[in-house]
Request: fold
Amino acid sequence: MADWLRRKSVSHTRKREGDKQLMPTLSWLHLVALGIGGVVGTGIYTLIGVGAGKAGPAVLLAFVIAGFVCACAAFAYAELATLIPATGGAYTYSYVAGGEVLAWFIGWSLILEYSLVVGTVAIGWSGYMVGFLDGLGVYLPFWLAAGYDSVDPVTGMHGLINLPAVLIVFVIAGFLLVGTRESATVNVILVFVKIAALLVFVAVALPHFDPDNLRPFMPNGFFKTIVREGEDWVEKGVMAAAAIIFFAFYGFDTIATAAEEAKNPERDLSIGIIGSLAGCIVIYVLVGLAAVGAVPYTVFSASPEPLAFIVQELSSQTMATVIAAAAVVAMPTVLLAFFYGQTRIFFAMGRDGLLPHGLSHVDKKRGVPVATTIFTALVIAVLAGVARLEEIASLANAGTLAAFTAVGLCLLVLRVREPDLPRKFRVPGGWFIGLMTISGCVYLFYNLSGQTQMWFWVWNGIGIVFYFAFGFWKSKMRKVKR
Reply:
């Protein structure tokens, strides 16, 4: 077999080195909360407005489509996570089923996903925090609250560094450095808070439901079309909305990166993955139905805070304040989940030699990869501190869609190549689930903008160059094979 096609065996993924072994401390409740913490965040708080602008009331259908694709991927993840309970998620599964180059491609795509999500959420949190501080009479100068290429539309002042975004990144890193279980416990508490806030929104908005607000249900059609709005060309239609709303669903895949830290991975990983996504789908459908039913979508689709805006329109300023405050709570849990996943991807790739080996060292006392966590914090802090990233949710989606496609493919490959391996969780209708995951993700990728697709391939072109310059030669599997 050519070096670049070398694969890991399932048994090889279970081997551990003394100082490169993560500590199993997480229960199924921690895993469910980690998944919900990663899924429920800026997506539902902001993208419901973007999706409604593209699809009208049929944004509800876009939620169902995106949720269905993610559900198929979640079932595939659940089987693979219990079959291969090793950190790295889709990266590790790809290494076993498809070989090293595919694993690198997926790992590099996951770095894109997690980095962009954490960076953009940190910037979004900064905006909420600056507004909160303004309300207290504490005013940060624009140059301390925005990236270097941002311009204040009122004063014309240029930004220099987004200090609140940098600080929240290091706060989350501090939580993770204390210990995985401790940070996961804090996450559980915050997740309950933000779910309660969304249920409050449903309770306030649903009594105002008006069927007339759902007519016409699909004003922009089902398939993606490109239309002119002012001076811009924009994508419209249900599938265009689904491709963006997909951002609101993923995050459960971070659970797969926690495989080595689960106390009972054969049982708890499947509960965590499927349970967290099922809970999120129910919450999203309720929130979406309440939103488009209470207020015409044309009224709230342009708002950067659509849920708070809807509640305010319903003459409940106090509840609007609660919803806005809950968004501030929601964002750090998303940061924690994706930051955690990012460190575990770096850890897994470093342990395999595809990235510098020092990234895989684990502190014996705390059981966490300290160097990886600090390195990740520095990378993301630079991104969040200086970048202006208003329109990169779809680019993060591209990395995730690539990973989910690979997971569907790995499920089918291992069903054929390793049919007799014991599977603690065996998804019913495996071929249907695998094929729907692959076809659904490919179709959603097609519905992303052309610019997003171009940058995705540019990123992975850079990654392939790095792989053949470094990872190919440093790979531990290369040394094993020789």
The longest strand covers residues 225-229.
